[in-house]
Amino acid sequence: MCRAASTQAQSSVTLSCCLRLSACIPVVRLVSRKIARNTLVIMSYCIVGAGMAGLAAARRVLEVGGEVTIFERMDQIGGTWIYTDEVGVDRYGLPVHTSMYRGLRTNLPKEVMGYPDFPIPAQRASYIVSEDILSFLRLYADRYDIKRHIKFEHHVVQIHPTDGCRWMVEVENLTTHQRQQFVFDFLFICNGHYHTPNVPDVPGRHSFRGEQLHSHDYRCTEHYKDKAVLVIGAGPSGMDIALELAKTASRVTISHHMDLLTFPFPSNLSQQTDVSVLTETGAKFTNGKEESFNVILYCTGFRYSFPFLGDDCGVRVQHNHVQPLYKHCININHPTMAFIGLPYYVCAAQMMDLQVRFCLQYFTGRQRLPSTTTMLDDMVQETEDRFLRGFKRHQAHMMGPEQGRYYDDLARTAGIETIAPVMTKLHNESSQRFVDDLIHFRDDVFKIVDDEYFEYVKE
Question: The domain spanning residue 385 has which CATH number?
């Protein structure tokens, strides 16, 4: 019922920390360090989260011979792809992590959603159900023997740097309520960014007497049968949910500030301008019109949130910009910490794998990081360049049509293989199809021809 609302390494690495200002720049050598006869030191990696990003990180760390521990607060892998009827808080009193709703089909073709060397298994449809993505992630975890490194139902409480340039991670075992502290050499933060709702402070919000919720707590259409629903926000989730609601609701209105959407809507689905104020019974819009509603559903995105990171970790989130990060990944103040999966409107699994490989070039010593000043200058320059190209402050990690620039920059900087250009081309093409034909775009079927080209099998 739905509710509203490690393998032992053949070689090891040693680590020394230097340049102690606010940063700790690792100098890593690909040699063995003996602390006793015939004893090798293996670098330890903590990974927060066992979703798509965490699995990518684990696979690549194991590949280079690192020791991996993954802390996952849920009882299975998959992160945001896990469906649950729970909303609000879970059985442990923690905010429900997943935003998955019943019946979701991907809004990107599966051909761009697999890992570079581990595609989603073949099936006729390109746009597949969420359960198929979850099954794919389980296949990936099994293929690389990742599950034995995961501590399920373990909630990361706090993380702090140690004096020795390592990381203290305090974790609560949710089933026993016991807390334990661990120390690691490196950190991959992979907790995703579709878990903390961004709810705008709309004037009159506290006056409305009906039901209000964020899409994070939306689960199924049945709850909205015969109701009038206002959907605020016309991004991918807002449009998708609005179309689903139109199947059972008496009336659905989408409020947004984009140009008028011109594709054919169901007869009970309409669009309006931005909300100027909410009333007791509905909303007034900036064009002067007013409508009554039973439910207001905010499809207004999510905020990056890392409540377990102490202030001494040297990372802040300002205007939804996680900073200071080198190439949207590496914590410049403490560069043995990296964030995987922050950029959005991307080929997610492909990019996550690339980001992990990028970071490991430095964590394993194959490449040496630039100075703190150089990394900060790079971040500032990239941010200013994005402003000049029309991005807003809150879009600091948005990629979209220009995602290929980011992939190639990562690859070129670290001396690694980039993502096949066909992935960016197909991602951009399918995203445009979403805009052009919201009703029918999921009927499209694509085939990857080679690293450069794809073709339509069906339109």
Answer: 3.50.50.60
